[in-house]
Each structure stands twice: as C-alpha cells, then as structure tokens.
Design goal:
mainly alpha; AhpD-like
C-alpha cells in the first residue's frame, strides 16, 4: 500500500507540518519525562493502529535508552510490573482519552487525581497536549496511509523553527 500524499512535498502540507512540529516542541521541551512521553505516544499509536507512529515511538524509545522489555510490554502495561506509578497514571489517562469513540466515559475523576498526584501543572498540560496531538498525528498518518518501517530518529528535526 502506497502513501496517498507526502505532506512535506506539498506547499500547504509543508507549512502545516512545520507548525505542527513547532507545537510539538513545546511538549518535547517540557519537564514531562521524555520516556513517559514516548511510552504514552507508543500506547496511543497502538490503540489507533498507526504503524507509522508505532515505528517512530518504538525507535525513539530505543534511542532514548529504553529497554526492549518495557517497550514491548506497553501493549500489556496493566499486566506488567515494569512501569512506575507516574507512568501508569499517564498511560491510564492516555487510554481513557483515546478511547472516547469506544463509548468510554472519558477521563475519570480517579484517573485525573492519579495524574495530578504525580505531575505538576506544567507536566499535566504537556501530558494532555501530548495525548491530543498524538491522537491527531495518528489520524493524519492513517488517512494518508503512512507505513511503518522507515523512520530514522531525528529525521524531522529540520521541519521546525
């Protein structure tokens, strides 16, 4: 299956990608731990079935020094002992916010309280923004039929200001 469109080769698409990347920099530069960001991004991408984004975040986790065990267990994190309580709170928020269309009631008060217990205001804002942006990125990639398997860490670094 071939991608339907290459955003960076299209004038409007290139402008969009650059601005999208710039907003992502706010999240990446926040104090929300990098590994938490990548674990959450990977889990959201798994739920949404986005091979392109699973590829990106699996490789970014490896690049950041994450162990294969923790990366491989993200899909079954609830039944795993290798995640911290803050990571578990972030993953719960990510799942509840991602599964809105599955008749999920949204982010529960209990989940919100767990997140707030482990993350300060800036980290919480970064986490909420990450969940929203990752779901958006998954949808863009799926609509355009972006395929996993070709991502190289850092390949988008020149697409931001």
């Amino acid at each position: 299956m071939e991608p339907r469109l290459n955003l960076v080769e299209n004038e409007t698409g290139a402008k969009f990608v650059k601005r999208y990347g710039n907003t992502n920099q706010v999240i990446l530069r926040s104090t929300l731990p990098k590994l938490t960001q990548e674990l959450v991004s990977l889990r959201i991408s798994q739920i949404n079935g986005c091979g392109w984004c699973v590829d990106i975040h699996t490789r970014e986790l490896a690049e950041a020094g994450e162990t294969p065990l923790r990366t491989n267990l993200v899909a079954a994190w609830r039944e795993s002992t290798v995640y911290t309580e803050p990571e578990r709170a972030a993953l719960t928020l990510a799942e509840e916010a991602t599964r809105l269309a599955d008749a999920h009631p949204g982010v529960s008060d209990e989940t919100w309280e767990r997140v707030r217990k482990h993350f300060d205001d800036d980290q919480t804002v970064a986490l909420v923004a990450l969940v929203a942006q990752m779901n958006s990125a998954n949808r863009i990639a799926l609509i355009l039929r972006q395929q996993g398997g070709t991502y190289i860490p850092g390949m988008f670094d020149n697409l931001t200001d």
